Recover the amino acids of this structure.
């Protein structure tokens, strides 16, 4: 047998060529021809990765391994991971299962999930241990590779229950709920209960999710505690209980439950996201945005290609709430190169992106996904978001009755589910779009925090002409950093003051609205559009208002002016908004007092 030195000389002379495609279980580690090796010294890196032929490179790597191995206990985590990666390339057969699993844990702690998956896969292929299979399946789900998790679950029958449960979670995150149910149907009662609780959240049954998963918040297994905390806190936010959700997130955020170095805890960063959602619902928008921005930038330095998009999605949602739709779009516009890896979050990103585009004049807006599509995919927790987008779409097409019906129907559905946080959102949107008179039945819902209360109070104040309540809602939005909502509230307050004959207060409120809206990146909403028009009616609108004051119906007005009834209805919608009335009766009562 030829010595290594002899082979090196033959290779340098071009007389032999090494096939550097490994055929064993380490192929995933070495598939990039050494590109996973991290070397601090640029000269060594250049020599090993680019200039040296395979045998020469491997010889140099062995020399480096020898140097690094002289004091293994003194190596930092980064150096230990580098050493293990080198050993996996040049002598994979010498690595024990403990070596590979330790390397997996180190890679995971550095947020390099691709390397962690490679090490766990190598451990599974060589040693076929349940632990290696479990790690690979969980990390695959984190990377959005549910098919790999399902494949290893089907290939490793010795620990089928745990692996089937992991695979079921991956399928749920990919919106394949029927396939998930097939997998967890035959598991233990406890595991079925946990899977069913997750499914209830995804389908918008927050009460059911809370009932199913709350008991696991004190489970001995930290992964069970963390998973329960993520979905229970998300459900509590949907139920209008952000204070309770924040309590859970902060109780579970301790070293034992959020240690990123433990690969089986897949939800650590998502508990932080839920905490930020709770903060946002409590009006602590700036705090949530700062944290998410820091974590987003941190994720950019890691090797988990989906982590940045997931963090960016929640950051974009918070920025949208703050009235910054253009900046939010930078994080919400997902693509093949910038994706979350989980279909459940991809849907959320699509809906939020459409909503941001509706706020910006001139932005291209595609047709919003219908609520029935989301319901069909089991994404009931996004149905209120879809309803809001669809309502804005109808308003942009001058279909105001349809828009009001969409929001009212969805609010009723969420009310029956006791999803009061979603109801507050929908009631607020009805107020923003001019349908506040439809919101009466939702005014007394139980909510935690002044911010959610201000959303309902905004619509209630407009419908009941309550100056004091509207002023409080505007001040709450402004103090929370929700500048767009505050601008709209002050614009409505200006119109209300005008109706009451208080021109001085009206001017002050209008100036406040203009100042706040200038910080909203050019966002345009019905309330701000009416503010820009300074309540002036066009000649056609004055004509129609006069006919209404005489008692004519839409059809009679349409016949008289040779218009369609729909066009008359659109004019009336704008008249109501400009004058600040809710219906024909109020318009007739106030028409004689209006100064045009």
């Amino acid at each position: 047998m030829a010595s290594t030195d002899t082979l090196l000389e033959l290779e340098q002379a071009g007389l032999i060529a090494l096939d550097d495609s490994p055929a064993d279980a380490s192929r995933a580690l070495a598939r990039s021809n050494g590109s996973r090796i991290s070397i601090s010294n640029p000269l060594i890196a250049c020599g090993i990765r680019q200039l040296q032929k395979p045998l020469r490179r491997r010889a140099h790597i062995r020399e480096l391994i020898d140097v690094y191995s002289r004091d293994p206990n003194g190596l930092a985590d980064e150096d230990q991971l580098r050493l293990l990666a080198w050993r996996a390339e040049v002598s994979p057969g010498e690595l024990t299962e403990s070596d590979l699993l330790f390397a997996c844990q180190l890679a995971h702690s550095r947020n390099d999930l691709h390397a962690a998956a490679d090490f766990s896969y190598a451990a599974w292929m060589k040693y076929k241990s349940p632990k290696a299979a479990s790690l690979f399946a969980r990390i695959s789900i984190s990377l959005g590779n549910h098919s790999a998790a399902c494949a290893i679950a089907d290939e490793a029958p010795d620990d089928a229950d745990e692996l089937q449960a992991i695979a079921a979670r991956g399928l749920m995150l990919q919106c394949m709920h029927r396939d998930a149910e097939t997998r967890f149907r035959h598991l233990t009662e406890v595991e079925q209960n946990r899977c069913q609780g997750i499914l209830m959240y995804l389908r918008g049954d927050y009460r059911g999710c809370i009932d199913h998963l709350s008991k696991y918040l004190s489970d001995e297994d930290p992964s069970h505690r963390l998973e329960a905390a993520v979905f229970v806190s998300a459900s509590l936010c949907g139920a209008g209980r952000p204070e309770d959700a924040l309590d859970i997130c902060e109780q579970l955020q301790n070293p034992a439950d959020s240690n990123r170095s433990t690969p089986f805890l897949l939800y650590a960063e998502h508990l932080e996201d839920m905490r930020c959602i709770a903060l946002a619902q409590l009006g602590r928008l700036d705090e949530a945005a700062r944290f998410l921005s820091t974590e987003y930038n941190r994720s950019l330095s890691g090797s988990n290609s989906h982590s940045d998009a997931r963090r960016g999605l929640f950051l974009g949602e918070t920025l949208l709430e703050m009235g910054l739709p253009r900046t939010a779009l930078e994080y919400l516009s997902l693509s093949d190169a910038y994706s979350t890896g989980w279909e459940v979050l991809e849907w959320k990103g699509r809906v939020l992106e459409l909503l941001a585009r509706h706020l910006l004049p001139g932005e291209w807006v595609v047709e919003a996904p219908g609520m029935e599509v989301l319901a069909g995919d089991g994404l009931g927790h996004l149905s209120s978001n879809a309803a809001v987008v669809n309502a804005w779409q109808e308003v942009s097409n001058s279909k105001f009755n349809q828009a009001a019906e969409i929001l009212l129907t969805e609010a009723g559905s969420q009310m029956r589910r006791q999803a009061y946080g979603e109801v507050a959102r929908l009631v607020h949107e009805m107020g923003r779009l001019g349908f506040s008179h439809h919101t009466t039945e939702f005014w007394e819902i139980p909510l935690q925090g002044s911010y959610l209360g201000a959303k309902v109070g905004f619509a209630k104040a407009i419908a009941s002409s309550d100056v004091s309540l509207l002023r409080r809602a505007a001040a709450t939005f402004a103090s929370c950093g929700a500048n767009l909502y505050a601008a709209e509230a002050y614009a409505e307050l200006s119109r209300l003051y005008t109706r009451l004959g208080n021109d001085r207060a009206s001017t002050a409120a209008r100036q406040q609205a203009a100042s706040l809206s200038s910080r909203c990146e050019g966002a345009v909403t019905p309330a701000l559009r009416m503010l820009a028009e300074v309540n002036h009616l066009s000649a056609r609108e004055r004509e129609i208002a006069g006919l209404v004051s005489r008692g004519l119906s839409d059809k009679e007005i349409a016949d008289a002016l040779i218009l369609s009834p729909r066009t008359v209805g659109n004019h009336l919608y704008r008249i109501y908004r400009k004058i600040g009335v809710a219906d024909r009766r109020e318009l007739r009562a106030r028409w004689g007092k209006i100064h045009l």
Notes: Residues 222-238 form the longest helix (17 residues). Residues 1 and 384 are 72 Å apart (CA to CA).
